[in-house]
Every structure is written in C-alpha cells, then in structure tokens.
Automatic annotation (TrEMBL):
Residues 401-652 form the EAL domain. SMART domains: EAL (SM00052), GGDEF (SM00267), PAS (SM00091). Residues 181-233 form the PAC domain. It comes from Lentzea guizhouensis. This is Diguanylate cyclase. Pfam families: EAL, GGDEF, PAS_3, PAS_9. CDD domains: EAL, GGDEF, PAS. The lineage of its organism: Bacteria, Bacillati, Actinomycetota, Actinomycetes, Pseudonocardiales.
Amino acid sequence: MTRVTSYCRTVLDRADVGYAVTDARGSLLWCNRALGAVLGVPVEQAYGRSLPALLPGVPEVPSPAREVLAPGPRWLEVRCSRLGDDLMYEVVDVSMWRDRELTVTQEADALRRAQALGRMGTWEWSIREDRVTWSDTLLEMFGFAAGTAFDFEMYAQLVHPDDLPMIEETLDRALKTGSVFTYTHRMLRPDGAERVFECFGEVVVDDAGAPLRALGTAHDVTQSSRVHDELVRMAEQDPLTGLPNRRALTRALEKELANNGSGALLVLDLDNFKDVNDLRGHAVGDRVMRMLASALQSRLGEKLIARLGGDEFAVVLPGASGRDASVVADGLRDAVAGFPLAGIGTPARITVSTGLAEYGPGDSWELVLANADLALYASKAAGRDRVTVYEPNHYADTVKRVSVLDRLRQALAGEGLALYGMPMVELASGKTLGHELLLRLEDNQEPYLGPADFLPVAERSNLILEVDRWVLSTAIDALVAEPSASLRFNVNVSGRTLEDPDFADFVLDVLGRAGVAPGRLGLEITETAAVTNLDAAVSLATRLRQFGCRITLDDFGSGFGSFVHLKHLPITGIKIDGEFVKGIETSDADAVLVSGIVQIANGLGLSAVAEWVERPSQVEALRRLGVRVGQGFHLGRPVPLRDVVNAERMPPNGALSSRVVGAEDGARS
C-alpha cells in the first residue's frame, strides 16, 4: 500500500492537470506542482493561502466545469467538488484546445473571408530556408504596403520588447514538440500606433518528426484587448480616484505573503474630510479626494496605494522595515497636512491618522490588515494626525474600548439592531409608495455608534454577510406581519454580499417560506458596488428579478460610465444621486442631467427616485423635470420599523432640514 500511495503521489506531481484541496473557506491544504505553476507560487509556500485570492474567478462552492481567464492570458477549466468536509479542485489549461478547435474548423474559404472582412492575416515560415511569407492583409495590418519585403528580424524590431522573449520561447517549444501554439503580443507600428495581435499557429513535421514549416494567423484584437483591460480595471479600480481598490490590495498582499515576502502595511484615514463635504458639498469633496489620491500616489512612486473606501487608503511596502515604513508614513502625513485647500474655497484643514503593521512569512492578509486597523484606531484615540506602529497591547486597548465588531455580534445575537423606514413619496400626491430600510445600532452602550461608524468596520469582515441577512429577514418578517400590498420595502445590499454565491438562494428561500409576494421586496445596490462586482451584481439581479423582486441601482450617476451600466444590469429602477438633486432649483447643469436621466429611465421602463429632497422648491423643480417619486427629509424622516408597520398611511411630514442626508441618515443598511 505504501508503494501504491507513493506512485499516486508521483503521478499527481507529474500530471499536467492541476489538483488542489482547500478547506471550506478556500485556504489551500494541498496542491500539486502543475497548480503551483498556474498560481505562480511554489507548492510549499502555497499551503494556507486563499485559492480564490490567488486565482480570481474560481468557484468557492462545488460547481461543474467553469472557464476562468487567468493572466497570460490563459483559459483554464476549473471544477470544484466536495472531498469530505473540504473542497477538491481540478484545473486544466484548455487554451490550446480552444485554439485547435478554431484552427481545425476554419476552412480555406472562411479564412480568405476572414482576411478580407475581419482583417485577419496569415503567415508561413519555411524552416529549412528560414524564410517567412506574410499575407498582404497582414502586412497592411502591420502598417506596410502589400508586397513589402519583410523578414522576421524586421518583425521582431516592431514587437514590444517585453513580449519578444515570450514569442521566441513559444516558437522554440512548438518546434521541439510539433504542437499547435498561440500567443498574444503588442506591436508598435511604423506610424507610432500600438496594436495588439492574437496569433495561432501549428508546426508541420516530416515522417521523422523534424519540423518542415510553421504556419499561422494573426488577428488584430486591439479593441477587444482594451475592453478586457477596462473590465479588469473596473473590477480592481476605485471609480472615483482611479486607484486600486480593496480587492486589488488584498490580492497583492496575499501574493506577497504567499511568496514569503516581508514588509509593512499602512492604513491611512483622513481625519477631517467630512468638513469638506459639509462646507463645500460632495462635488467639491470628490474633487479634493481625487487630488489627495493623486498627491499620495505621486509621493509613493511605484509603491502600491489603494483606496479601501470612504476616506481610507492603504499602502503596501514590500521589503520595508518598521523604521523605513514610519519614514514613508510621516512623509504622507506631511503631504496631507500641507495640502492646499485655500484655492478650493474652504478653511477646512485635512489631517491623516495612520496605522502601521509589519508582516512576514506565516502571516495572513486578514491578520496584517487587522493589525494595521488596530494601530489606526490607536492613532485616532491618541488625538489623530499621527502615525502609530502596531503593538500587541493595541489589541488589549481595543477590547477595553469595546470593539465595534464585538458590539455588532452582540447586537445580532440579541436585540441591539433596529431598522428605520424612510418613505419614498409620490411628489404629486404625497402618497407613500414604499420605504427604504436603514440600519441603526441601539445596544444602549457608549459611545454611540452611527452607521458611518460600524458599517465600514463590518464590511471589512464576513460579519457584514450576517448583518445583510438579518436586515433582509427582519424586513420580510415585517411584510408578513402586515400583508397589505401597499407596504413595500427596499433593503440595501453590501458589496461583500454581492460576492456571496449563496445569497440569492437565501433570499428566494426566505421569501418562499414566508409566502410574501416578491414584488413587495426591493434590493438596492450602490453603483460603486455594482461596478466593483459587476459579474456578481448581474448574476444576483438576474435571479431575483426573474423571481419578481425589484432591483434598484442606488446613487446613480456617482460612478464611472453610469449609463453604460444600464445595458448590463437587469434592474427595475434607479435612484438619482443626491448630488444632482440638492441644487436642482438653481443649477441649470443639474436640471439638464436629471432631465436626461429621467428620459433614459422612462425609455428603458425603469422607475426613477430622487434622493436628498429637503425643500419644497426641490419638489416643484423635480416635478417639472418629470420626476415622480422622491425621498428626503422634506418628504419624511426615518422612523422605527414598528411604526411603519403599524401606520396605515405614512404622509410626508413636511419637515425642512438644513442638513444634507449623509452617512447617518442616508447610509445603506
């Protein structure tokens, strides 16, 4: 049996197919060398790392074959199945299979048409004569006239220098094995334009197996490559600042730790940024945020800086000692403190608090980020505008202050969470059409924590998944308690929950058991969360909409390419970002934008709700522009859920507010 076991291990280690076993959370327990090569991490250093972080796109639950596009690019076919309490993965590189299918199925006539209509060129290399023949279409794609004398050396001079070694290695391997091959490379044409070409080829051999010639095709895929790069950028880039987002940071940090890297992580939080928003509005706040992000990035050079969300950033410093990282952090603190705000028209001064945590082999990215957070909290507690290096006693200090996560867990276990309903009102009649449910922490502990205090912390951990499920279950319980069809709720879904593959099943199961009409429940997804998790958002929205639930894109207009998202997301409505609404009576630009949004929504059959309605004059302006429904302090303040359920009708209270709905009252649940 020992010999058989040894043979099995040897076969698995020599197999071209990648195999791995993870625990239920995705941490690698074992993998063979083929999978280590796919991950780019030595096998012995991969154990304990998160497979979904190292190979984004792999299923996190048992799943039939799924194709995943990996860096290279390479197409991988991934299967996930249960192995006792753990998960087993089978990863096959199917790139060459796809290429072979394409090559074999194309007939000569189709190839000629492809060259003429699709600008796909062909080439043939006579190996013994060392002569390359290029089709006229391909020469024109390269930027030369048909019939131009063009050899491999001229071709190599135009190829991007970073891509040339890969091409030479691919061709050399194909000549030795006689196999089909493919590669994608960049080329700088004589006119200065950079193009991207995808090449497929095969080697023809004689009876003895010696290569006679190689032939293949080249297709200009510049546009599709740019679209792919844009999708990747949107998935891992903060739409406001253009910096990498939390997902990109955790992936980079996990990769660094998987390779036994050491260094330091900085977490920075802007101390007084709320003053800018309060004094000058969110448009100015966004502009300042972009300028600050650019200034920090310029100061750091090639080092990775990411925006974690809100006014929080993180910096990864590979190879840096604690002393070196402190110097960098002090420099960033000085840069923020000296940032010129006078030209922006506000006297507010922005400072930054920083937490610093060192990392090394054996650490996990969750631990490193948690340590940096604890150091950041210590900086805040010590008076802000300072750098604090993580020390073990910070944990004890945090426990003494009663950690936010502990309070949230206790609130979930007891009755410390509460929902408040904010009415969505028909502007013409004052009739309440539904309520958005907002989350509050009411655990009778000090200090008081508003949504802006506890939600960002929850979103850094898996606790937000439990919070979102509690909100949804509580909302459905209330709908059961009051079966009136006129009682309709909207609940907010976090970006982390979008990535939960079981959430859609959970929603459908709870609705089904409760017997609640699906149309009485709506889910709100912020535009930023939808863009960051576009595939997950489309999947969730598609399933729930098919069942009859309403899906609303919240804060519409706040992100990059807002109108583009309407093509991809199967939504039923949008909420017009309050930034366009708060000055609607006086700003011609806001009026034009809102009018355009309403026309597009009407054309697509979507409902449109205006946020931040705080004055009677806004109501009149919005009605003139065709907006039917609004939400804000003038139309109704948030009230406890039990009062919403008990009330037969919730008319607008007419309250005027000098405040802008912010993190406290406009926060998502």
